[in-house]
Write a structure and sequence with these properties.
Shape: globular
Strand content: 35-45%
Largest sheet: 5 strands, mixed, barrel
Oligomer: single chain
Radius of gyration: 17 Å
Strand order of the largest sheet: 6-7-8-10-9
């Protein structure tokens, strides 16, 4: 049985279809995106040009905004620079969802600066990337990943991976062990 690809949070990212991969339910095409592929989606205020991620659909969060702006969906930069990073070496307590019988595997969190948007975005590093593989200022790119799989659903999310020749052949990060988020 083929699994349905479903974003963990609808409207936060988009992935265009590639051979053998269907875009997740709730994913939208990145309007005006020349690069296509996997992109985080934010919103931009038309009055003050502030960009938000996670997206804001109700009002501009910029306290200096003159107001009355519309919030428009925008694809965020596909690449940025490592601002900070750390690792998680323990299984978080409830309500975190994971299989208590599966062995726990540490994971790496990365804060990535997107200079064009003037923000820092937090995400998990692609599986196999550890703190030893990262450095502040290193260029990374956002890629699609799998958070969890059930019998009928593949829950998709985003990961960051270093940009470089060693990582050029990785199209999507594989399913993690232990059900991390």
């Amino acid at each position: 049985m083929e699994r349905t690809r479903t974003p963990v949070v609808s409207g936060w990212f988009t992935e265009t279809e590639t051979e053998g991969t269907a875009a997740g339910a709730g994913a939208t095409a990145a309007a005006g995106s020349a690069e296509g592929g996997f992109r985080l989606l934010g919103t931009r205020c038309s009055a003050c040009a502030a960009v938000f991620f996670p997206r804001e659909d109700a009002y501009c969060r910029n306290p200096h905004c003159p107001g009355d702006g519309l919030l428009e969906e925008v694809p965020l930069s596909p690449r940025g620079r490592v601002w900070s990073y750390t690792d998680g070496r323990y299984r978080p307590p409830a309500p975190y969802v994971s299989d208590p019988d599966a062995p726990w595997e540490p994971y790496t969190l990365v804060a990535v600066e997107l200079p064009a948007e003037g923000m820092v975005v937090l995400g998990q590093a692609a599986p196999g990337i550890t703190v030893a593989d990262l450095a502040v200022g290193m260029e990374v790119e956002v890629v699609g990943g799998v958070l969890n799989e059930t019998a009928d659903t593949t829950w998709t999310t985003w990961h960051f991976r270093p940009v470089g020749p060693a990582d050029a052949d990785v199209a999507e990060s594989p399913t993690p062990t232990g059900g991390r988020s």
